[in-house]
Every structure is written in structure tokens, then in C-alpha cells.
Amino acid sequence: MTRITLATALTLAVLLLCGSPSQIQAQSDTKIVIKDGGSLLLRPDGLDAGKTWKFSRAEVRHRNTKGVLTALQITDGTTDRCAGSPTCGVDPTKPWTIQVTYGAGSVTIASLSSNKGVHVTQNGLPFDQWKPTTNADEREFGHGDGYHITGIQVTGNSANLCSGNGCQIIAHYSPR
Q: Which of 48, 35, 56, 27 lies closest to 121 in space, CA to CA?
């Protein structure tokens, strides 16, 4: 006979009532991560294995168009380019755009309308599709192509927020 402790039983009950941990996380805040490591990786983190995103050859779109950007973090190597500011040049109450220059092209994260919804598009990149990885929430471009993120421009900030030292952007997105 197998015995289950009270703590284990409560944990199982919460999971059964609320769904998996990724679904619980997706109900509050999710992260959209674009990471540089000699190739470009997009990871919609905590979004229930990609079920809330629509992927096509040129675009990734979030199905919940009511969600809003709540914070933005940009790091270049070990340097915090946002200097601790949660919005880093993006006003979450207004339309916003983050343009990432990569190789000969760019990737743009932007609000769909007003400040709500989000989509990621590619323009002029030397590859034509988002390739899935073993993690269903991840898509990669140009894996192993040797290119790096060379520039990040954010609405409201004309400065280049990336010097090519291994940049990462984390956009915190709150589905509502």
C-alpha cells in the first residue's frame, strides 16, 4: 500500500484543479526571449508548449490580443542595457516596437494594435522560416550560422542597445 503525505496530496490537488505549471504561469505573466549565441533563438517562455502562439514562415503571433507588455530587459553580455528600468524606452500604455538587427536582416517584436497583442516578424534574414527545437515553446533561426545580434532599437530610445557581445531581450507579456 502506497501512502501519500498531506503536502503531496495538496500539491496534486492544486495541479489537477489548475492544470500544469506552464499553464499556471501563462495565466499571469510570460516571457518572450530573443537570445543571441551565434544563432538566434526565440523562446516564448511559459506559454503552455506554444499553444497560445501561431507560427508561420515569417511571423509568430500571440493569439491573445488583449495581453500587454509589462516590462522589458535587455542585456549585452553581462551589461544591463536597461540600467534597471523595467520599461527601457517602451511605454507599456502605448504602441511599441523592438527591432533586432541580426546579420543582414532584422527581427521585429511589436504590438498588434494600440499596446495590446504581440507579433514577431522577420525581414531580410538569410533564412526563411522559424525552425522548431525539441522545446515546443522555442523557435530558432540560422542555427550555427555564426551571425550575432548587432543592434537593438526600442521605441523612444534612439541609442543602439546592443554592441554584439551576446545580446538577450526579455519582454514580459501579460495575457489578460
A: 56
